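yo, Polymerase/histidinol phosphatase N-terminal domain-containing protein is done. seq:
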Amino acid sequence: MIDLHSHTTASDGSLSPGELVSLAKELGITHLAVTDHDTVAGLPEAMREAERLGITLIPGIEIEIAYAKGAFHLLGLGIYDYHHTMELLIDQAQAERTRRNLRIVKRMNAAGIPGDYGSIQAQTQGTVIGRPHFAQYLVQKGWAKTVQDAFDRFLGQGKPLFEPRQGIDLAAGIQAIHMAGGKAIIAHPLSLHLNWSPLKRSLQEWKELGLDGIEAYHSRMSSRDSGKVLRIARELGLLVSGGSDFHTPDDPLRRLGFTSLENKRVPPELAAPFMVPML
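structure:
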């Protein structure tokens, strides 16, 4: 089993990097990519634990790209040379994330919900704070019943606390990933909110910028949609990745090692393009 998309407490996951790798070992996963949002802070711990347990750890990251229509997330898979090559990009992404978070706090207070940014920071173990942490805060303070309820009523697009985020330029994101030795892969492409023909045209344009591939298998995609993305990828000569987008064991729809709404396993052959080059 493999999984090429997962998160830890370094961003918005509930397990520490070591705990995530331990869970992967328990589940029989042999190849795991850790892809936290806008940070590589969890990679050293994950790699140490993976080496101890005999798991192949593929270092990664997930970056939000500037995009008007939907959510454009770019995975960097196999960024084995991430030290000193991605610092500027990460600093830019985290600075924009902080600006957005402060705007959310202002919206919170304007809506009569007490709290400050320090209160949000206090509840997270990681370096990256995002909307899931605000959702957890709303649940803790009794403003929402569950994290999903917090998104549905407060934090989702068009809701009272929603704030758009200015992402990173696509070309800059691709360049940083390539400098780290990795492959630039579009994550969960349905979040781009493009129909199939416009998606194919856009992928062709982005490939000319250096895009390497697309995540054809994802826990929130049906097998039918995965098949359509896979066909487009083959037609354009793009690499294919797949992963659960795991955040917590409490989410039955994002099970580590599984993908698609039908809970199928991630095809194991997808890991090969993102392995460390053999000398």
